[in-house]
């Protein structure tokens, strides 16, 4: 089985293709129609090599191998019909597009919007779904016993406990539920009381943090002395 590799070139398409030499020119044109978008009956075929003309493939009954065809020659496909010449298959602006109106799209069950709605994602997120009512009530109850300026001890995951003072108690914009804003005695916090551009309290930079009320214990905790470990001179 003899195969030849050709560069197919037309006004609107260019690609490397392999063809059987046993194809007739007529059969070749039928295959080229799907490649270049020109009807087989409107094609004019010409072989070129290094930009020099080799021959015309002008007999539909002749096999491709009848002509002096060789690998990596260029097969130029021209349109004999002026309408075919005007078609540009790389320009999708000429293609009629189906546009679904928003109401119809909203009714479909197999869309990204439907998926987000089912799973409360994105703009369909319900803050209440992120936290059960029982959890929010529990945090509210525990927060009720915590007051601004109370001294406190905070449980920090992986870091034991830290001492500080309560600077905020209530709900926030960054997460649902009740939170306690704490100013730590040491600079082990994350901010100065501002989160996402919203100021909830004021404190020294890198001393502020938000924790859940169940991590806070209020009491008569003395302020931590940063120099307590230094020997007297």
TrEMBL record:
Main location: cytoplasm
Domain CAP-Gly: 170-212
SMART domains: CAP_GLY
The keyword Transmembrane belongs to this UniProt entry's keyword annotation: no
Assigned GO CC terms: cell cortex; cytosol; microtubule plus-end; nucleus
PROSITE patterns from the UniProt entry: CAP_GLY_1, CAP_GLY_2
A biological-process GO annotation: post-chaperonin tubulin folding pathway
Keywords: Chaperone, Cytoplasm
Localization (cell): Cytoplasm
UniProt GO molecular function: alpha-tubulin binding; microtubule plus-end binding
Family: Belongs to the TBCB family.
Name of the featured protein: CAP-Gly domain-containing protein
């Amino acid at each position: 089985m003899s195969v030849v590799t050709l560069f197919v070139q037309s006004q609107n398409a260019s690609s490397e293709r392999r063809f059987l030499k046993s194809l007739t020119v007529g059969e070749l044109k039928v295959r080229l129609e799907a490649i270049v978008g020109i009807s087989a009956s409107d094609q004019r075929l010409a072989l070129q090599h290094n930009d020099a003309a080799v021959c015309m493939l002008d007999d539909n009954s002749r096999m491709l191998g009848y002509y002096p065809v060789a690998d990596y020659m260029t097969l130029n496909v021209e349109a004999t019909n002026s309408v075919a010449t005007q078609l540009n298959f790389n320009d999708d602006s000429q293609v009629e597009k189906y546009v679904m109106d928003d109401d119809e799209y909203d009714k479909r069950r197999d869309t990204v919007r439907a998926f987000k709605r089912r799973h409360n994602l994105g703009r369909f997120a319900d803050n209440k779904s992120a936290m059960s009512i029982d959890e929010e009530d529990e945090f509210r109850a525990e927060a009720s016993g915590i007051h601004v300026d109370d001294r406190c001890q905070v449980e920090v995951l992986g870091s034991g406990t830290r001492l500080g003072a309560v600077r905020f108690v209530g709900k926030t914009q960054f997460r649902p539920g009740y939170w306690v804003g704490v100013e730590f005695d040491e600079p082990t916090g994350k901010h100065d009381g501002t989160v996402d551009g919203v100021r909830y309290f004021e404190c020294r930079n890198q001393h502020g943090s938000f924790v859940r009320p169940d991590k806070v214990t209020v009491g008569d905790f003395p302020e931590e002395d940063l120099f307590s470990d230094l020997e007297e001179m």
